[in-house]
Amino acid sequence: SAPTVVVAIDGPAGSGKSSVSKQAALKLGYAYLDTGAAYRALAWMLLDRGLDAENPAVVIESLAEFDFTIGTEPEGYFVKVGPDVVTVAIREPWVTSEVRLVARLPEVRAHLTEMFRSIIRNTSKPGIVVEGRDITTVVAPDATARILLTASEEARMGRRSAELVDQSAAVVGEQLRSRDRADSRVVDFMNAADGVTTVDSTELDFDQTVSAVVEVVHLASLRVFHGQHPQR
Ligand code: CDP
Ligand code: CDP
């Protein structure tokens, strides 16, 4: 059978990665993988079990019992840790603020990266859209299409505040900036790596952003079809 088309999408918080990737996957008939959900789910597990997420040894040890399941149908998204459905819980602020403690550890990143590659290998769809911070550079550097989804800080803050009715824009803004700063120390997702196409959504609405992403995928697939190495 034809090899799976892999679409790698990275970008900062609020750039539209999750919503745009999901919709692009739906349009293309591809699977969808939210890698941030795995980092969030691991942080959730540590908090749920009362384990010390500040202690690297404790976090690394917990990987052995990290039983993570994720729905990769763009319309059937769910996240489980063991038997617990944590789809909503992993978005809670008390989880979000702890994710950096697990994401900073190379052992955690290596473990989750292997998990993601196995999910990509086992997809039954003709393609998969994989979204996160290090997909274009570490998880799938040889992806068919590699995209950095950006938007001005103002636009990203605005979109996030619109989602959270019970928090002030200032608080949301500061949390987002502080998370981006911490994340940037671990992986560079603010600058496009060689061969990565930047899609700036600042002036685009949601549908226009999805179309821009789908267009990059079509162009990249054509390039592969004509036997050229994808963008490198
Ligand atoms: O959707 P949002 O931008 O808020 O974040 P997310 O994609 O759910 O990711 C949550 C956190 O997981 C990020 O702030 C990163 O610390 C971490 N992450 C990562 O380190 N590498 C990835 N490939 C994806 C997420
Ligand atoms: O996953 P990430 O944090 O990058 O962003 P998201 O949660 O997918 O998107 C944040 C919000 O921005 C969502 O409510 C999207 O519908 C919205 N959005 C938008 O208003 N305009 C765009 N061009 C892209 C996303």
UniProtKB/TrEMBL annotation:
Reaction(s) catalysed by this chain's protein: CMP + ATP = CDP + ADP; dCMP + ATP = dCDP + ADP
Residues binding ATP: 11-19
Chain ranges of the Cytidylate kinase domain: 7-218
EC nos: 2.7.4.25
Coiled-coil regions listed in the entry: none
Keyword annotations of the record: ATP-binding, Cytoplasm, Kinase, Nucleotide-binding, Transferase
InterPro entries: Cytidylate_kin (IPR003136), Cytidylate_kinase_dom (IPR011994), P-loop_NTPase (IPR027417)
Localization in the cell: Cytoplasm
Pfam families, alphabetized: Cytidylate_kin
One GO MF term attached to the UniProt entry: kinase activity
Predominant localisation class: cytoplasm
Keyword Zinc: no
Annotated family: Belongs to the cytidylate kinase family. Type 1 subfamily.
Name listed for the protein in its UniProt record: Cytidylate kinase
Biological source species: Subtercola frigoramans
Gene name of the record: cmk
